[in-house]
Amino acid sequence: MRCSYEVICQRNYDEKASTEKMASSMSVKMVDYIVDEHFIDINPSSLKRVKEMILASSSSVQKSAQEKQFLYDIVANGRTGIDVDKFDYIVRDTRACGLGCSFQFERLMETMRVIGDEICYRAKDYLTINKLFTTRADLHRTVYTHAKVKAVELMFVDAMLEAHSYCNILNRLDDPAEYWKLDDTILKTIETASAQELQKARELVLRIRRRDLYQFCNEYTVPKDTMDHFKQVIAQDIVCSQRSGGPELKEEDVAVAASAPATLPPT
Q: InterPro entries per the record (predicted)?
């Protein structure tokens, strides 16, 4: 659900921003908020280091020169993609979705070693590492980008936008003191409130509950060799391409969701 709030922010403020970057940015703001709100006594240099580690996968982040560089690969590993963030959400999401997970991160944690300022793994653990990426790819294919899941996400985003005037959602997306309050309870607020301005949002939430979801129409896989020149398709493109004589679609009738495929490690 947290990702859906980032999608709302992306659609309303910066279409080119990635949800991953927005999540990392808010994580940094949350760290500052927690330290200030709870009067945590922490050395400024240590606080700076924590925030750098959160953003470590970004090449634009300036890492402390005196720090051991492998420490920045623990949370967000931009070099190999093997980090505790993946360990966490892969185990959590497979369990939540009732899927089997043959990946065992404990095995890697017990045997990893630091060599030449880089986190390394035994050659015999290559199958475990492969399972990490294949499980992630399976989650992207069968859960994260599943047509029904994307339909629910799009409907949730539309419901939140409809509820903004009542719940002040958009203004809470950039404020860590308010952002942490955006959880599943907001759906119950929409469903139980009698305010007229929530009528459209209530209808969308009810449709989600009843599985009356947006209908999946088609998908297109962009060839890898044309990705650099491919123009992102928007609702207007689809509406302008419809044939005459049939039902007339409007832009608000069409939702377009773009997803990047999960990559596997080189063999």
A: dGTPase-like, HD_assoc_2
Domain limit, last residue, from 144, 161, 196:
144
Environment class of residue 232 by beta-carbon count within 10 Å: exposed (0-12), middle (13-18) or buried (19+)?
exposed
Q: What is the CATH number of the domain that holds 22?
A: 1.10.3210.10
> What one-letter code names the amino acid at 9?
C
Q: Which domain holds residue 72?
A: 2-144
Q: Distance (Å, rounded) from C-alpha 139 to C-alpha 154? A: 19
Q: How many domains does the chain have?
A: 2
SS3 113: strand
**SS3 state of residue 114:** strand
In tens, the pLDDT along 6-47 reads 666 555 545 444 555 566 788 899 999 999 999 999 999 999
Q: What is the pLDDT of residue 17?
A: 47
Local structure of residue 143 (DSSP, 8 states):
I
Q: Do 63 and 92 fall into the same domain?
A: yes
Which regions in the chain score pLDDT beneath 70? 1-23, 57-67, 261-267
119-133, pLDDT tens digit by residue? 999 999 999 999 999
Residues 79, 158 within the same domain: no
List, in sequence order, every residue forming a beta bridge with 119; answer none if it has no partner: 114
Examine the domain organization and report whether 122 and 56 are in the same domain: yes
User: pTM of the predicted model, to two decimals?
Assistant: 0.79
Do 112 and 176 fall within a single domain? no
> Is 157 found in the same domain as 133?
no
CA distances from 18 to 6, 7, 54, 78 (A): 9, 9, 16, 16
161 lies in the same domain as 85: no
Q: Taking a C-beta distance cutoff of 8 angstroms, is the pair 55, 24 a contact? A: yes
Residues 254 and 235 sit within 8 Å (Cβ to Cβ): yes
pLDDT at 44: 94
